[in-house]
Structures
1.
Amino acid sequence: MKLIILNDYDQVGEWAAKYIRNKILRFNPGPDRFFILGLPTGGTPLGCYKKLIEFYKKGEISFKYVKTFNMDEYVGIPRDHPESYHSFMWNNLFKHIDIKSENTHILDGNAANLVEECDSFEEEIKAAGGIDLFVGGIGPDGHIAFNEPGSSLLSRTRVKTLAQDTILANARFFDGDLSKVPTMALTVGVATVMDAREVMILITGVHKAFALYKAIEEGVNHMWTVSAFQQHPQTVFVCDEDATLELRVKTVKYFQVQGAEQHTRPGRKGRWRSCATFNLSVSILHSAHSLPNK
Amino acid sequence: WKMPTNKSVSKAPITQFVNCRILRDHKLQREDLWVREGRILDPEKLFFDEEGYADQRVDCEGLIIAPGFIDVQINGGYGIDFSQATSNVRGGVALVAKKILEHGVTSFLPTLVTSPPNIYHKVLSEVKVHSGGVEGAGVLGKEAVRKDVDTSSYVRLVLISGHDIQYCIPYNCCHLEGPFISLEKKGAHPEQYLRSFQSGGMLDLIETYGTLDNVAMVTLAPELPNSEKVVRELAQRGITVSLGHSVANLSQAEEAVQNGASFITHLFNAMLPFHHRDPGIVGLLTSDQVPQDRTVFYGMIADGIHTNSAALRIAHRAHPTGLVLVTDAITAMGLPPGRHTLGQQVIEIQGLHAYVAGTKTLSGSIATMDMCVRHFKQASGCSVEQALEAASLHPAQLLGITRCKGTLDYGADADLVLLDDAINVRATYIAGQEVWRK
């Protein structure tokens, strides 16, 4: 895995947005070849979404031939509830870009048969040809999507009861009234995300630091489900300084140097700091593939 | 031929207003506005339910989109006097309706001043409720009395041209200011046609007006004997009762409100002045006798002439949510200076003032609605949102028609006014169609 360490939340959002943009451009999607993107919700990816909208408005990217699959959705709250993940995606991304509704997929928490809904979601991913890039976040308890501690690392899309901690954390979005907070959600499984060809996990903030430590410095463990990605062939973790606070200095230095080396071309001189790795990787991408005409 | 659409619920084209700031939830927000079939559309529903998108985009170039203005007191304009029984009453209303689009007014109540019964009989039978369109602003009716209206109760007429869908609401439409008003406070109304409730109340009304079918609002003086029954009966029928041209004291006014009155006609004008031991009708703004679930609204002619700015501010600060901007515009609005007819009297224009000819009694205003909104904002120091709501949301709340007018909520009629930051009208839309552009 790669661990990209940036200074702050904004840099993480920008880096991640550029990474997604460049991946899509490099893929060069068209009417017969869609780029399949997996997407999260929550505070962490907001900065990234804002940047993607900026890139779209500047004409640098189009979502016309992009399909999206969201990770999760609450069970039992109306689709147009301000806290539903449908509302989140509409307000924070879809309404600002040129994506077609039929190309977006979000689990329906009000489906008559929830199990069938989950199964057909898996089928839709398969029918689309699998996910090219799955973007995700991490919970303070190390969960990916709603795969709370104890979730099987081989799980697929299913109905999950939310952990008490998650319900408490969510109460602030429901007027502090615990009775209003949904107790169940539909979520992609750990294995569903592992099936993606590439995975990018965003982690920002000191409250995620311990989870990041457990995810990359300790072993693969179902109590910290993000740790499963140690076994994924193509994963990048993007975090800010605060999120590294529970890591060993050794780990941080290792990834900083490794990141610099991986992106240094033979013969180049000079030292590279971690935030420069992104700039270089972009320039490598640019030189390797000319950007399509606008 | 219209482009085939992509939606599953309706084939009608969808317009998306972009690059604009819309007035929603009492704030100007940077959001797009979506319109389909003359109504404001919920784009999130469109996206997820119908997998639809816009057929047409209108670039508003940063302008403000507000709900179209609603004028609940307008006596005429451009040479037309609603209180005259001409041979072409409908044509007259239609002319004014078209002209006031330039002021951002998309709905109005044609107002009749005190007149003899034959005038009421003639005019009321001719002026039908009609919704707006390219021909002009809509003459307002009231939604079903005491019930929620669903769209199936609207009669739909598709014009031969095939483009416009007009909704005819077969209910009320006019504002009758008088003749059951006080002699001492008649203002510019002709004395000989004033009346009282001598036959007990409703009988007098039916005798005078002929019909209550096309009536949305009645202004009366509550101190007149037998008025309580009238107020109650009118309110029950869903007709807004307004207090005005009256010498009522505060308790008489409060009783009228408790019986169902909900509006004050041009606050301060044609009523007893505020007195600290008996505030009169003005005291309703802060009265504690107003039932909890009800709001007393009050009309203000914010033309800088009818009310001193300091008085305007006092009223606004005392009761900001009840302020309704009205023009009380008369025949001469839009016309050059000189002499013109209003009701049964002659008035004279001098600059921005209109007097009863030969006197210094104000006869009504010639300010336009957008001028009133600008003046109100400047004089009161209120926000743009508050100024716009005083001309749109509040009159709609007064008439109980907020489900389709006065807001930009999903499902409301797409009657819009596009304004710049100085509140100058740049374009007006009715049912999503552009009906005037600067």
2.
Amino acid sequence: QGCPNQKLCASGATKAPDPAIAEIGAKLSTVKHKILVLSGKGGVGKSTFSAHLAHALASDSTKEVALLDVDICGPSIPRIMGLEGEQVHQSGSGWSPVYVDDNLAVMSIGFLLSSLDDAVIWRGPKKNGMIKQFLRDVDWGDLDYLIVDTPPGTSDEHLSIVQYLSSTHVDGAVIITTPQEVSLQDVRKEIRFCQKVKLPIIGVVENMSGFVCPNCKNTSQIFPPTSGGAEKMCADLNLPLLGKVPLDPRIAQSCDEGRSFLNVVPDSPAAKAYKSIVQSDNETSF
Amino acid sequence: TTLVPHDCPGTQSEQAGKSSSCQGCPNQKLCASGATKAPDPAIAEIGAKLSTVKHKILVLSGKGGVGKSTFSAHLAHALASDSTKEVALLDVDICGPSIPRIMGLEGEQVHQSGSGWSPVYVDDNLAVMSIGFLLSSLDDAVIWRGPKKNGMIKQFLRDVDWGDLDYLIVDTPPGTSDEHLSIVQYLSSTHVDGAVIITTPQEVSLQDVRKEIRFCQKVKLPIIGVVENMSGFVCPNCKNTSQIFPPTSGGAEKMCADLNLPLLGKVPLDPRIAQSCDEGRSFLNVVPDSPAAKAYKSIVQSEFLQPSTTHPHVPLPSCCTSVVILYNRITLSLQQLQRNLKVPSNLYIIHKTCHKYTNKTS
């Protein structure tokens, strides 16, 4: 009431599509596969999974892979990929992403901060603008895979990434969870979100699925699946369970050190679980 | 082209009316004049409404999944175990509200009356409010952008009939965005005791937590202290301790030493914590003698969260003619110490572990 814009907004004129959507559609038309990594819950291993999915896909040197981090407040990808302190360069063709290997590129707001401890204290609209720039202004080149790591929730970042990619083909979302009901509760909301915005769900990954004591080999369920874990949720919702990854201190260690866990301890149960998930993800969606 | 820019910086932003995106917007002159930045009248209303709340504590973390809601819930339970205290727990995680489940209140509904919304009561002296209570189905997703979330938070603070509280604990989602700016903004005409920051030991967490600490400093929110969760796991079979989230960069201990913040305590991983949360029961009641429960209790009872009004008993070395305060393993800024203990300004502080003393008169 009283806003000079009122009549304009009520007429629907403000709801005309953002021209950037078509620009992004054109720019990303050469990207063969786009995968979003989502979870309603924080701290379940989205960034860990995104990073290792990227490493695994890029292990085929004939594939061009890119990892885009749209977690604006808590960008973990630079650390996990061993790229802390790297900077992004601008050229005539746009921003150049940071390369881990010849065929593995990464973009994150982490690369745009002057200090690693700088807080990005932005409200929704500014975050949306950044995500738009990441999609429209980064010179990705021709990609086989674009993986998008997201923050937890069903808010600005998630609506924006789906909206800005709406004139491209998105293969779908991989949903990450941990076994306990407090996580699954939030993850079911994320699944509802995907259904509402018509984003296909490639499948669900259950992280932190048990811990094998290195001393006595006894398995503990540190996050007990009191309501049946991801297995029951997937059965109830008719979704593929791509796999279950056990807790392994070497995962967190590798992430802190910026190394691929799949290379550091390739024969560990956790690494084997990851590889089998990545292969099944490949078969399911591609 | 549309007349309202897609990159509208927002009517409250510093760029309102001045950004290049504002060219051509019919609102431009209004925004540029500053009329849209007049303070929200709700802030004063909230200030009046919450003036009878003695203590307000925010539970924050830059990182998700570190145990904010778990800590908030158990802090509320612990404070409410004193039946003379009125305690309330407000959940401002709009997208992922875990508090109803953790407090065993799933499925409860909120009622409206003449005096506002009534919160849901766990016990006579423990009230809870969360968007979880407003959903028709527990699986309903709340897919809202920032402004709508901010509006909900405003309503929680202004329209809930909390009554006279001793403690209001606010559980937040991870990050440094709308919810965090809003809660600080809407509470800006009240006194907030400060924030408890939750982390886990690994650097990937600490990196985000340092950003949250920067946020607190920027908005001038005092930091009560830091809690490190998931700090080791003792195998129930062989009692061997594993660091599942290894403190590769020194964990919360080093971060607190670097940033001169109190480390309130470290809580080990215990499957019974997650189990209790799923079942909606207080872990402190279910397994009160477990190492994790003891760690929680010691944190909750610490001088920082429940400052006592009496001076602690300390031995006075004969060489020292002023009051000596002895604190284990913790360094504090002088102002915070004075505020908590109401001691005179000329005093000597001894850091026990290094046996040095420093004259820190202000």
